[in-house]
UniProtKB/TrEMBL annotation:
Superkingdom classification of source: Bacteria
Segments of this protein annotated with the region Disordered: 321-352
A Pfam family the protein falls into: ABC_tran
Keyword presence, Acyltransferase: no
Family, similarity comment: Belongs to the ABC transporter superfamily.
Chain ranges of the ABC transporter domain: 12-240
Gene source species: Microbispora rosea
Keyword ATP-binding: yes
Protein name in UniProt: ABC-2 type transport system ATP-binding protein
Single GO term (MF): ATP hydrolysis activity
UniProt KW keywords: ATP-binding, Nucleotide-binding, Transport
Length: 352
């Protein structure tokens, strides 16, 4: 896709958007700006209005009030968006009885756009890492493979605005690499990407700006760097060459404290240390470690600044450390559920 040069207006401009379902206000005066060449993250708890907003951007629903412009075109009260918009909500729509290649060819034909023929289909499959299974029927695909095929279908449209809902669902490390590379490449070529995900690490890796929703309202919207600066105290995990010395230096650093129950003597991973404090205090600890001749092998937040801000701004009422533990449990449960679901699907197909 050639580089998009759009300077007149943002790819998405929303002002005062409202949307209700009966007595429930899904969106309540939402403002949103998404620039070309930007990956914009959409974050919020379940029921915050993320899916509703994504549906508006894809023309799957219409707003009750407010103004919405997509790719410089005002969107009225009809289920339509301008050409150049692609993506999916609640998973891509695919034909299970067709192969991956047949799915892309069929979708291109139905959409009546020039996908570049077989060359375009093959290129899209290669970009998402599905070339080896191009002739396999989609009914046998895992959740992650279906997500990647949905992304390949979106690539065929050469989108100027790509809207994705939980694109990392079910992805293994290789699939995640392909999806991240595609999303980053689209933004680098000037397209706008709106990405909703519960995986804060993916958002932190991909997004330059983020909007946080809570009960249908925007509680933060702006650069990730600003969000990180306003996160206050975070938990950081350190790996050093001398855990005992690191623990002592951390305890002596003003504004920094070792997280209770996480010192080296109480952990199976004796090289790890978790400290809590603001960024300047962590910087001071790094200086002290270097002066003491202690090698710093790893330094990373236990919970990303995006997740910390999410917890604070949405009133989740749990600490970042608790969030990390809960996230680990959720990932394990998700993997088990995906495996169980795939086994059930296979059993059903064997009965047909």
């Amino acid at each position: 896709m050639g580089k998009v040069d759009e300077n007149r207006s943002p790819a998405v401009r929303a002002r005062g958007i409202t949307k209700s379902f009966g007595d429930v206000a899904a969106l309540d005066g939402v403002d949103l700006d998404v620039a070309y060449g930007q990956v914009h993250g959409l974050v919020g708890p379940n029921g915050a209005g993320k899916t509703t907003l994504l549906g508006l951007l894809l023309g799957l629903a219409v707003a009750d009030g407010g103004r919405l412009e997509i790719l410089g075109t005002p969107v009225g009260r009809t289920l339509a968006v301008p050409g150049g918009v692609a993506g999916f909500v609640d998973g891509p729509g695919l034909y299970p009885s067709l192969t991956a290649r047949q799915n892309l060819a069929a979708l291109a034909s139905l959409g009546r756009y020039d996908a570049g023929g077989a060359t375009g289909v093959d290129d899209a499959l290669e970009q998402v890492g599905l070339s080896d299974v191009a002739e396999d029927r989609v009914r046998g695909f895992s959740l992650g493979m279906r997500q990647r095929l949905g992304l390949a279908a979106a690539l065929l449209t050469k989108p100027r605005l790509l809207v994705l809902d939980e694109p990392a669902n079910g992805l293994d490390p290789a699939g995640k690499h392909h999806v991240h590379r595609v999303i980053a490449g689209l933004a680098a070529n000037g397209a706008a990407v709106v990405l909703s995900s519960h995986r804060m690490d993916d958002l932190a890796a991909l997004c330059s700006e983020v909007t946080i929703l809570a009960t249908g309202r925007v509680v933060f919207s702006g650069p990730v760097s600003k969000l990180a600066a306003e996160s206050g105290e975070l938990d950081y995990r350190l790996l050093t060459s001398d855990p005992a010395a690191a623990h002592r230096l951390a305890s002596e650093t003003p504004g920094l404290r070792v997280v209770p129950g996480r010192d080296p003597a109480q952990r199976l991973d004796a090289d790890a240390l978790v400290v809590r404090g603001p960024v300047p205090a962590v910087d001071e600890l790094v200086v002290r470690l270097v002066r003491a001749g202690v090698a710093l092998r790893e330094l990373a937040p236990v919970v990303t600044p995006i997740e910390a801000a999410f917890l604070a701004l949405t009133g989740a009422g749990i600490t970042p450390a608790q969030a990390q533990e809960e996230r680990t449990g959720q990932q394990e449960r998700t993997g088990q559920e995906a495996q169980t679901g795939q086994e059930a699907q296979t059993d059903q197909e064997n009965l047909r």
